[in-house]
Specification:
This protein is an all-beta fold. It contains 1 helix and 30 strands. Strands 8, 9, 10, 11, 12 and 13 form a 6-stranded antiparallel beta sheet that branches.
Length: 408
Amino acid sequence: MSSLPRSLDRRRWLAVTGGGLVSAAGFGYSENSGDLIQSISKETIWRNRDGKGTTWFHPRACMVPDQSGRPFVLMTLQEITGSDYFGPVHWTQSDDLGKSWTDPVPIAALGRRPVPEHPGLEKGVCDVVPQYHPMSKTTLAMGHVVFYRGDRFSRKDQLPRYPVYAVRREDGSWSEQRKLEWDDPRGGFIYTNNCGQRVVLPDGDILLAFTFGPTEENREVAGVRCSFDGETLKIREVGPALSLPVGRGLLEPSIVAFDDRVFITIRAEDGRGYVAVSNDGLDYGEKKAWTFDDGEPLELSTTQQHWMPHRDGLYLVYTRKDESNTGVIRWRSPLWTARVDPDRLHLIRATERVVLPLVGDGVNAPDEVALMGNFHVTRVTEEESWVTVGEWMPRREARGDTLLARIR
């Protein structure tokens, strides 16, 4: 197996893989605790708590240089109107580091399509993550297929699911939809990198991770290395699998390169999330349930986590059970972050803080609390990171705002 280039300076890694920012009153930088966050601020990109606009979901951003080399932010997002029911994927752009955004425009390649052999069934795309690929000067936007019947997610006749992508070229045009092929029976029902963070290697290859399974029953996770020439993504190698025989198994893996290693964080259905580390992004060591440095486990409810490289440290962004959110579905508000000890693979409790706060009463009036479990992290500069999320209130006509937490 290929290993990561140990001579590669970590700042170059971060420049290649992309990166984000948030500030909150009362949260200060503490050198003694090891916390590298100086401030966190909350901004609203679009409003729809009043139901008069659009509830944008899966807002995921990446930094892209224009043809003159000046950076702008490209974000993909889509409307949500019900549980797992999404509209066509759109894109928007900011030329002033998130202060203003263009009106979202559909990406034709990632829209809805009828399935002729199944009358009434439509194929859509969701869970898209864009990432700039500097070697080809393109942006790879990858999600996976999902199937709808009428005005809802089709729960009885979901067809096999797999990754699809579209490429935004340097001239601003988008490619047609393409499928990431994997001819392996282990992914017979599903294989996907949905919502997952990826790593671009210096040679242009892309590291990611699959969650996969031959049936709906239980899924495993494995590291994947792909080639990418700016048009076509192809699998080169798939590593050994990690597994957990509980519920649907292991889901929605995200990876990050840090200190010459690749770290993976994984959603699970046993009340925990898991972390593992690899020297090459393919062969991961034994998975470990997330805990704080005092040994207390991170109590989760089948929700994804994501990485935030910030300044010279590595952070995790997540949701968890807290006395303030006991009535909230899967405790998906607020969003938290804490610095990771990359050697002991736990969170440093003294650095934990709220990234985006719970708004409302999460104990006595949880239906009024917007969920924030599907979020994304972007490294914008060496000093600034973003967490972007689309709120939604499932029992309040899927209303919610689109938020950006700016972390410095």
